[in-house]
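#struct-pred
JK: can someone run the complex with NAP? inputs below
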Amino acid sequence: MSSTGKHSSKLANQRVLILGGSSGLGFGVAEAAFELGAHLVLCSSNQSKLDAAVARIKEAYPTQAEKQSIIACAADLSDVANLDATLEALLQKATNNGANKLNHIVSSAGDGVVLSPLEKINAQLIYKVMNVRLVAPATMANGVRGRQPLRDWSVITTTCAAIEGLSRGLALDLAPIRVNAVAPGVVDTELFDSLADERDAAMQALANDTLVETLGRPEDLAESYVYLMKDRFVTGSVIESNGGVLLK
Ligand SMILES: NC(=O)c1ccc[n+]([C@@H]2O[C@H](COP(=O)([O-])OP(=O)(O)OC[C@H]3O[C@@H](n4cnc5c(N)ncnc54)[C@H](OP(=O)(O)O)[C@@H]3O)[C@@H](O)[C@H]2O)c1
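RT: done, structure tokens with the ligand placed:
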């Protein structure tokens, strides 16, 4: 629950826009920020997923839902041709046409993991992987694959490394507005649901690759995002939360 304490009240009445807030990492951040007293604007491409996410948060925090707002804004960040207009409309809605200041923007929007052997990589595939994660302005989600590539992960590795560069560049360009990135290891989210019957075995194998012998949960990674929102002295930084996978 939000409180009046010096540390626990840092997000009280702050307004947080979360791109990709309907599931996975973004939903975890949404829950954490709401619990700490923030107003939320959740964005994803699917209105019914957004509505379900809003309902889950209101059900989990009924008392706070009476005082704090949650707005759901559907926007397709993969539609690069219309991205400027899409983001402009999103920001207008998120700020009530400029009347409400946004304190933080979190981006964890991503449209599925596309792996490809080197010989099959083409421009279309590169753009598909990068559009939602990187091209959409303020895309700040990231991953350990930027530093620890696997076979067939070249395009994703490029995207992860580019996000780190983007956050450092934006931290300089937008100062004193702060810009940071989070580099997660493997986090058990809806991202992996497409693995269907192979999901459990794949997740166990990934957990075995970590030092802590488990995968991250959205509520674990939410701490990294909340920390970056609360520490007004951190900018141009990358927070790693990966179960020690880089040391194995
Ligand atoms: N989970 C991990 O282990 C992990 C590790 C490192 C990095 N990452 C990266 O972090 C990001 C989030 O991962 P996650 O696990 O949270 O995935 P997720 O559960 O699948 O969430 C992805 C979010 O992005 C939204 N989204 C997808 N396509 C979109 C579009 N065209 N426009 C706007 N929003 C869109 C989704 O909502 P809709 O479907 O409603 O659009 C959803 O809210 C991804 O880029 C992923 O590659 C994940």
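RT: quick notes.
The two ends are 37 Å apart (CA to CA).
Residues 15-241 form a domain with the Rossmann fold fold (CATH 3.40.50.720).
JK: thanks, will look after standup
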